Amino acid sequence: MAATGLRSFYSGKNLFVTGASGFLGICLLEKILRTIPDHGDIYLLLRPKRGKDISERLEEIKKNQIFEVVLKEKSVEQVFSKVKAVAGDVGQDDLGLSLNDRKLLTDNVNVIFHLAATLDFGDTLKTTVDINLLGTRRIIDLAKQCSHLDALVHTSSAYVNSWRLQADEEIYPCKRDPEELIATVNKLTPEELEKETSRILSDHPNTYTITKHLAELEVQKVEQLFPCTIVRPSMIVGSWKEPVPGWTISKNGPQGFFMGASKGVIRRLPVGKHLIYDYIPVDIVVNMLLAAGFYVAVTKPKKVAVYHCTSSTRNPFRWATVEDNINDYLHKYPLVSAVWYPHLKLLPSVTWYKISAFFVHFFPAIILDLVTRVSGGRPILMKLHRNVNTSLDRLEKFIFTEWKFTAMQTMNLQDWLKDTDKTDYTLDIGTLVWKDYFVDLTLGSRVYLSKDPVRTLKAAKSKEKILLTVHLIWQAALFLLVWYLFACLIGTTMSSSIYVLPVIFILYMLL
């Protein structure tokens, strides 16, 4: 068991965080500010974006709703007094740091949390090599120069080993040599690189997993120089408990589908409902980052410590668990901004989904986009559904493959923590009830993604009654239209072809 507490360790420590404006990074920042008030300076690597400099971006971070809890007790100035923005970019040489900022970091930083990465499975090898692989190498070069470094915490992904159906908490060799890959990326034209990508990937499904895999090997190379750890989350979803249940700013994974389903736009979801899906709440990942950094800093292992922050072998989730409750969740927390009556149905394949989507997604989208255009708005639904279809082609392997990630070292780390830290920074998901969790996630998607506050719930439920009436009229009209067309096709009256109605109904239910 730890001789000291996690809070005590991080008190007075100066921290450097990359990816701080992202889903995981901003949640990590909130947890530190709320639970470790005696922390040292927190340096956030930020790059100018969309015409905003780093000071403006820091102000944007401060306004995020995630800080509502900690700001109930202290002012913005008090909470963020030691949070400092540093201009830079992991995709640039030397992290794009000025000489003064680099010296500031190397003279003062005690713990580095490297979270920055490009997560887009459709990104080119050029982009992912530059950010995920070389970005990690640049962070390691900085770490080597830090005079008082206690730990380097690298955020990876459980899916770096997606070529294995079961993976342990160890670093596996990669078939690709990083130097050869970097040379290839720099030598080939974008067109040539695109043609060569599938060959280069080999048994990796996309550019993200191979570059994150190679990034782990970069960390392993320096395991003798300073304490370092790799945390591998699976699919990160909204918070379980902290700072509030269901908090999220990420549209990836189930919260994104719930957002679309609540609007009535997404009505079908392709899943293997009896497969295990490895989802992990963001607050558990944050606890894991802090606990892993604490552990390696105190114990100083000579090998990089690898942890799976996953659920598949500890508290597995299957969509069959919530299938019968999904629409109850949606109707419990409807949206004022809904455009159609919400109803989400699970389908067993991407092909089946695309057939169904033609009728329940694209056909209504054409009509709603037309109405939007006539009323002077900007039609977006057809574009949205085309993007969803494109994304599903890239994600099909991840949707219909079951992985199991062992987490023995993660459980050992939980046991190693002091009793108070086992509660305040828990890594244990054994008591998580998925049905209850998805109720909170539905509300979180409503409040934090759709920006629909709880106070609008009464108005939303009134609107939903109107949408239900419109939906039923629409369904009746479609049934009559199909019935009429069938009667015309076979040259008879509608009353004489009434036998076709059960067939139409069965076909509709299959969609």
Automatic annotation (TrEMBL):
UniProt keyword annotation of RNA-binding present: no
InterPro entries in UniProt: FAR (IPR026055), FAR_C (IPR033640), FAR_NAD-bd (IPR013120), NAD(P)-bd_dom_sf (IPR036291)
Membrane topology annotation: Multi-pass membrane protein
EC number annotated for this UniProt entry: 1.2.1.84
Highest taxon of source: Eukaryota
Record's keyword annotation contains Lipid metabolism: yes
GO CC annotation, single: peroxisome
Recorded catalytic activity of this chain's protein: a long-chain fatty acyl-CoA + 2 NADPH + 2 H(+) = a long-chain primary fatty alcohol + 2 NADP(+) + CoA
Compartments where located: Membrane
Span of domain Fatty acyl-CoA reductase C-terminal: 361-452
Root EC class: oxidoreductase
Keyword terms: Lipid biosynthesis, Lipid metabolism, Membrane, NADP, Oxidoreductase, Transmembrane, Transmembrane helix
Transmembrane segments: 276-298, 466-486, 492-510
CDD domains, per database record: FAR-N_SDR_e, FAR_C
GO biological process: long-chain fatty-acyl-CoA metabolic process
A single MF term (Gene Ontology): alcohol-forming very long-chain fatty acyl-CoA reductase activity
Ranges where the Thioester reductase (TE) domain occurs: 17-288
Summary of the function given for this chain in its UniProt record: Catalyzes the reduction of fatty acyl-CoA to fatty alcohols.
PANTHER family reported for this sequence: FATTY ACYL-COA REDUCTASE CG8306-RELATED (PTHR11011:SF45), MALE STERILITY PROTEIN 2-RELATED (PTHR11011)
Family statement: Belongs to the fatty acyl-CoA reductase family.
Protein known as: Fatty acyl-CoA reductase
